[in-house]
TrEMBL record:
Aminotransferase class V domain mapped to chain residues: 32-422
Record field: catalytic activity: (sulfur carrier)-H + L-cysteine = (sulfur carrier)-SH + L-alanine
Protein name in the entry: Selenocysteine lyase/Cysteine desulfurase
GO molecular function terms attached to this record: cysteine desulfurase activity; lyase activity
Keywords, in A-Z order: Lyase, Pyridoxal phosphate
PROSITE patterns in UniProt: AA_TRANSFER_CLASS_5
Homology family: Belongs to the class-V pyridoxal-phosphate-dependent aminotransferase family. Csd subfamily.
Cofactor or coenzyme needed: pyridoxal 5'-phosphate
UniProt superkingdom: Bacteria
Amino acid sequence: MQYIKHFNSYRGLIAGIDTKIPLINGAYTTAINFDNAATTPPFLAVLEEIMNFSPWYASIHRGAGYKSQCSSTLYEEARSIIGNFVGADPNKQEVIFLKNTTEAINKLSNRLVNLYPDAVILSTCMEHHSNDLPWRNKYTVDYINIDKEGKLSLRDLEEKLQHYQGRVKLVAVTGASNVTGYMNPVHKIAAMAHGYGAEILVDGAQLVPHASVDMLSPKNPGHIDYLVFSSHKMYAPFGTGVLIGPKKVFQQGAPDCPGGGTVEFVTHDYVKWLSPPLKEEAGTPNVMGVVATMAAIKVLKEIGMNHIEAYERQLTDYTLTHLERIPNIQLFNYHQDNHPKVSIIPFNIEGMSHDMVASILSHEAGIAVRNGCFCAQPYVQRLLKVPKEEVQRIMEDDTLPHLGVVRISYGLYNTYQEVDALLRILREIAENRSYYKEKYNKILDFG
């Protein structure tokens, strides 16, 4: 527990940390946010940097004015700062700014079509929809299996790479699951993929904010070819996503989103595209979002990603140890196996719906969690061991309750005192299920 005292001091870095919210009984309490896997609150330093930059904000790249030149310089400097944070090679990899991870994966799926016609893309059974759906309408997609505990099967990956005999061009895998928090051995997966002539995309949306990430040199067999992540999950709002990949890929062909800012010369009969990354960033770029991202990265580097990972892991282990002692709690990731995880804990209370439990936590204790399938429905269906026939029935009948679990997800600013508050209310709910079900069926019309 060596990081406890040290990390409690970092609560002061977060905007809105002492916000008071109403409870169902009319009292007010300090909000507790355990929904960081969806979106983190902003660093105060990020908001301050935005305010400091605002007087200099202007349209970039095509303006001769002094403010435009300042904004353009900062925007381009951001690429090296952000790339350095994850070990990208500035000589061989482009850093492209987009709205979020979802847009980044969609862009990549569009840009690879001409390079890899008739390709097989290997996604996995634990992916967010954003690393599954964009591949479906353009490629043959297959899914790397998971074991009974929800972890990725490297044996199945090897078998599929062998089966397709060189047709697999990309393995698209999450760095850390947004449902279970399980971290995948991305460098080992990369080496396996490269051994069969495939590349690797790592969805870093849940990994980059919580652990050190190094894409490694392209000369290393375990290097990451493509990395995507979102700033809003790393304490920087304003809507910026990042796509990092080989320069040679984006030098070829037309951008998937042509328009202003993507061209060097145009007639009605001819288009000369700008060089990447500019031709991949159509329209007026989100300079404010990029400034926010840089400011957040500065804070994260000052704290140290290894320290963040260690503290959040301790917080997660502490929670799991105590959750296991509460009756009627069903956990969906395993505590004793020492498999690397980011700070995510999925659970249910037996005999209660996930949406009811989440609502009770909010109304009774001011604790924000997420519930449902977290845009990873096939994975949650597997974790819940729901037969395909039942999934089909739920899909066809809108009156049936939707499948799901409750998700706790921590940030670097969360404390043991907040966790203890969660554990107290969960024990209260789990030991008095009938009372709370009756109460909330009446209040919120749960069926």
